Amino acid sequence: xxxxxxxxxxxxxxxxxxxxxxxxxxxxxxxxxxxxxxxxxxxxxxxxxxxxxxxxxxxxxxxxxxxxxxxxxxxxxxxxxxxxxxxxxxxxxxxxxxxxxxxxxxxxxxxxxxxxxxxxxxxxxxxxxxxxxxxxxxxxxxxxxxxxxxxxxxxxxxxxxxxxxxxxxxxxxxxxxxxxxxxxxxxxxxxxxxxxxxxxxxxxxxxxxxxxxxxxxxxxxxxxxxxxxxxxxxxxxxxxxxxxxxxxxxxxxxxxxxxxxxxxxxxxxxxxxxxxxxxxxxxxxxxxxxxxxxxxxxxxxxxxxxxxxxxxxxxxxxxxxxxxxxxxxxxxxxxxxxxxxxxxxxxxxxxxxxxxxxxxxxxxxxxxxxxxxxxxxxxxxxxxxxxxxxxxxxxxxxxxxxxxxxxxxxxxxxxxxxxxxxxxxxxxxxxxxxxxxxxxxxxxxxxxxxxxxxxxxxxxxxxxxxxxxxxxxxxxxxxxxxxxxxxxxxxxxxxxxxxxxxxxxxxxxxxxxxxxxxxxxxxxxxxxxx
Length: 530
Known about the structure:
This protein is an all-alpha fold. The chain has three domains: 20-198, Growth Hormone, Chain: A (Up-down Bundle), CATH 1.20.1250.20; 213-268, no CATH class; 271-509, MFS general substrate transporter like domains (Growth Hormone, Chain: A), CATH 1.20.1250.20. It has 17 helices and two strands. It has helices at 20-39, 45-52, 56-84, 86-105, 110-138, 142-173, 178-181, 183-197, 211-232, 240-262, 276-306, 311-358, 368-396, 402-432, 444-450, 454-464, 466-501, and strands at 2-4, 527-529. Helix 11 (276-306) crosses helix 14. The longest helix is centred in the middle third of the chain and has 48 residues, at 311-358. 50% of the residues are buried. The model is unreliable at 1-18 and 513-530 (pLDDT under 50). Residues 23-510 form the Major facilitator superfamily (MFS) profile domain. It is a multi-pass membrane protein.
């Protein structure tokens, strides 16, 4: 009987084998679960409200606690993965995500559901930066890494779109807990497969891990994101519950930065921000999300309240945006090699700004061709921008700082989205409310209340009835369309600022040489006969 000893295979560096593409599949499944869970609950809110009877504040926490906790812990777990092992953190995230999903599915009260959603946020924060940092290690060649990031980003786009559609399907056939229960079988498969396939990697591990700095960053981000979310929810800027979190978050983050600069072994190497490609990429991610996430919410309101589409029809109408984003992600590697980071990101911003300006032609009647064209160009341009920015940021970071760099990118994404909702929501309200100040035949008090939102205006119009109700409804729809146009123009301006910022990125894609495999040890791999 003869055999071949393969001890040398265990000494190969991560990514040296052909199974790195299987690793990419496992990482994409992880990302898909996290992305779906961020949006799947939105359609289940009415059913949760009817069953658990949460108060207004409790309902807000049910919806918001997942992204809030996830955003605040990204840096903590990203840097911890650099220290103790990225695969270890990812597998722990899998386990926690599965347990929290079961707890959420069978929650008997609003309080239990809030705790379960918070634990899901912790699991998501463990999974998200780990997927990108492992990807950075598994694909040392930048050309292949760009292709892998394209697939990764396309999966993220799919997850965000599939969440509401999957939630709607499950709610038509099962109870609301099924939107969480679907995670469990996938996690039961991902845990053993991930343990078998994923390579372990970590940073150099010099110096102690800054526990106090990690907690400081988490607390600061939690407070900052909470304040931004309250602004986005329409809370007054001067309200103490908005100002205190914003000030506390800013102070803690400033303290965190000062602490990192003074430490010999910082939690996050802030020297990365001195590299133009890294800092510019992070800024482009923030600006892209700041300009566009708020528009998604406003577009959904426009489709449902102005055009009268159902939630399912709204989701289907937005699908071309997702398909275009998938196409851009899959073609991103080839475009990056051909055009380089500077032209790719700059062109993506300009293309997206053009789509946003095109959508200012939307009116009070449905124009399917206009919306289809606008959403396709918007999705392609946005994904082109984000792909180029993420790839440049991750490639610029040192391999031993991959977890921290991925966490910074994901945190920038979350902060940009939160600030965008607050900023564009404020612009929308400022442009919408004056249109309802004086509506003929409508009492001043009713007009003032209708200026809060289009949904509230429609409710008041239904209560008034008759010519006054019809006049208020028509005026509210017209004011909303006007506010939408103003918001689109502001968003286009922000995107053009991003295009100018992208000019600081490298002109060409600089590919480092792929690592040369070590010569095989003849003694180790010799055939032996027994």
